[in-house]
Amino acid sequence: MFQLSATTTVLLLVGFYGLTYLMTRTIKEKKENVDGFMVSNNAVGFGISAASMTATWVWAASFYASATSGYNYGLSGPIHYGLWGALMILCIYPFGRRFRELAPRAHTLAEMMRARHGKSSQLILAFSNIAGSVISLTANFTAAGALVEVLTPFDFMHGVLAVAIGVLAYTLWSGFRASVLTDFAQLVAMMLAAAIIIPMVFFAAGGTDVIDEGMLKITDEQANFFSGTAFLEQGAPYLAAVLAYAVGNQTIAQRLFAVRQDKIKATFVTATLGYAGTVIGLGMIGLVALMVGLQPLNGDMNNIIPQTASEYLPAVLIALLFIMVIGSLSSTADSDLAALSSLVMTDIYGRNLARNKAKPETMLLIGRLTMVGATALGVMIAMTKFDILDLLVFMGGLWGALVFPVIVSCFWDRINNLAFTVSAVVGVVFFVVSRFELLELTGVVGVVMEIAAVIGAAVVFGLMAFGFFGKNVGFGVAGVSLVVLTPLVLGFLRDYPTLLGALVAYGASTVTCVLITMRNTERFDFALLNERITAFQDEEKRSAEPGDDAVAAR
C-alpha cells in the first residue's frame, strides 16, 4: 500500500493546524466574555451555524462507521447510517425551538433541568453529557490514530497525539467561538474533497465493472437493498440512538443555544441535507471495499477508508483525503472540548460549586483546564482502540433513558424532580441489563424486556410525530405503533440485543416517569425558566451594582 512520507505527513499536519490556529487568533479577545466563550452570546448567524452543525455531526463515526456499515451490510448499509442520522437532525429542531423559547439565554440542557426540577436532575444530565463528550472525543482520536497508522510511516499513538495537541492548541484560546469559526472552513474543504475522492475511488476500483463482479461475491442479504438484517442490526438501533443525541450530546445543544433564535429551522434543515449527502457517499467506500474483497488491516474496521484510499488513489488525492479526514475529526473534537468546558463551567462550577455567584475569570480558567484534562483522558482511552460504531450505539442507547424525561419536562407541567431522577436511573438499569445480558433474556425476563422495548419504539415514533404535528398526532402515532409492533416484537427482539437495549432504555424510563408524574398534582410555571437562567456576565454586572444588597435585603 502507498503511504505518505514522514516529511509530507508532518508538513500537512503542521500546515493544517498552523493555519487553523492563526485563524482562531483573529477572534481572540483581550477581555474574554464567558458567555461568548460558551455559546457566542446566543447570536450566531445562519451560514456559520449551519456549517458548524453539519461539520460537527459529520465526525469520526460518520466517516468510519458509515464505511463499516457499507462493508458489513452491503447496499443498504450506508443508507441506514446516513438517512436515519440526517432524519434525526431534522427531528431535533422542533424540540430545540421549544428549549430556546423557554430559556433563550441557557448554556446547557442540564442547566435548564436544574431550573425546571433541581440539582439532581441537572447533575444526572450533566454527567451523562460529560461521559458522552469524552467518548466522542475518544472516538475522534481513535479515528485519527487509525488514519495515520495506515497512510503514513507513523504509528497509531503518533496520530492520536498529533490531532489531540493540534485541536487543543487552537480551541483553548476562544472556546466555542473558535470551534464554529473553524467548522466553516473545515466543512468547505471536506465537501470539496469528498466530491472528488468518492468518485475517484469508485472508478479506480473498476467503476461499473466492480459492481457487476462484486454482486457475485457478496451474500444475498448484502445484495438486498431492503435487508432486514441491516435494518435490525444497524438501521433501527442507530435510529433510536441518534434521537438520544438531542439530549445527550452537548455539542448539538451548544449550537442550538448559540444560533440566532429565528434561524433554528433553517440551520437544522440545511445540516440535514449536508449530512445525508456527505455520509451516504462516504459509506459507499465501504461498499466498494466489500465488493473488491478487501480485508481490513489487522481485522480493524476503522482501517477500511484509509486502506481503500491507499489502494486506489494517487498520492495527491491520498494527501487530500488525509486532510479531509483530519479536518472532519478536528471539527468534532474541538466541539467536544467546547462542550465539555461549558458543562463543567456551567453545571459543575457555575450553578453548583459557586452557588450562582460565579466569577467569569474563574469560569474561563476552569473551562480551559477542563479542555486540557479531557484531551489527556481522551488520548489515554483512545489507546485501547475501541470500535467506533460500538461506542456510538452504546452511548446512544444509554442516553435513551433521558430522552423522554428531558423533552417532556419542557411541555408537561406536572413532571417533578422525583419523576425525572427515578426514570433516568431505571432506564439506565434496564439498558445495562438487556444490552450486556446480565440476566438471561428468556422467560419472564425476556418478555418484560420486549414489552419495555415495544413501548420504547412507540415513544420514539410518537415523539417524532409530536415534535412536528402536535400532541394529538403524537399520541395517535404512538398508539398505532404500540398495537402494530407488539405481536411482531414479542419472542423475536431478544435475538437482537443492540436494538433491544436501545429501545428498552426509552420504554423503561417513559413508563416510570409517567407513573410517578400521575401522582403529582403540582403545576410548574414555565415562565420561571427564563427568570432563573441568565447570562453569567449579566449576573456579575447585577451583583456589582451599588445598592444591590439593600434591594435583596428588602
TrEMBL record:
The keyword Transmembrane helix applies. One of its GO terms (biological process) is sodium ion transport. Keywords: Cell membrane, Ion transport, Membrane, Sodium, Sodium transport, Symport, Transmembrane, Transmembrane helix, Transport. Its main location: membrane. It is a multi-pass membrane protein. It catalyses: L-proline(in) + Na(+)(in) = L-proline(out) + Na(+)(out). The chain crosses the membrane at residues 6-23, 44-67, 79-96, 123-144, 156-173, 185-205, 225-247, 268-292, 312-333, 365-386, 392-411, 418-436, 442-466, 473-493, 499-518. Gene3D superfamilies: Sodium/glucose cotransporter. GO terms for molecular function: symporter activity. The keyword Kinase does not apply. InterPro entries: Na/Glc_symporter_sf, Na/solute_symporter, Sodium:Solute_Symporter. It is found in: Cell membrane. GO terms for cellular component: plasma membrane. Pfam families: SSF. Belongs to the sodium:solute symporter (SSF) (TC 2.A.21) family. PANTHER family: SODIUM/PROLINE SYMPORTER-RELATED (PTHR48086), SODIUM_PROLINE SYMPORTER (PTHR48086:SF3). This is Na+/proline symporter.
